[in-house]
Amino acid sequence: MKIDKKIIQELSDYLKEFDLTEIEITEKDTKIKVSKNNVSISNQPQVISSSSPTTSSAPIQNQNTESGTEITSPIIGTAYHAPEPGAKKFVEVGKKIKKGDTIMIVEAMKTMNHVPSTADGVVKEICVKDGQPVEFGQTIIILE
What we know:
mainly beta; CATH 2.40.50.100; single chain; 1 helix
């Protein structure tokens, strides 16, 4: 299998440009994943090539005693409250959710990424509007 170096360079450039920690592209049976999670001494992105599926990283959770449990966006993209326009929302204020439940979708580069809850709780506040851009680490939901 021959990997096009231009694709790897382009993905590495996207990591820097959008301040991402990893990016992945799949074409037919080839999957290329560029990540800077394991940064080497020279601070270059790590390239992983695989033909098997991988799971997405869990979002970061911050604990704040005044506002509750904050669930943050694991990636930069556009947040959506429902799986499609007009469909039932994943969560609403006052709804009880469990760890692992999908709370939102964040679209990044035409890929819909389901964001799971990192804790059990009751939705206290939804911090982003449907269709709103979100940044990596931005609080998207607060749980009681």
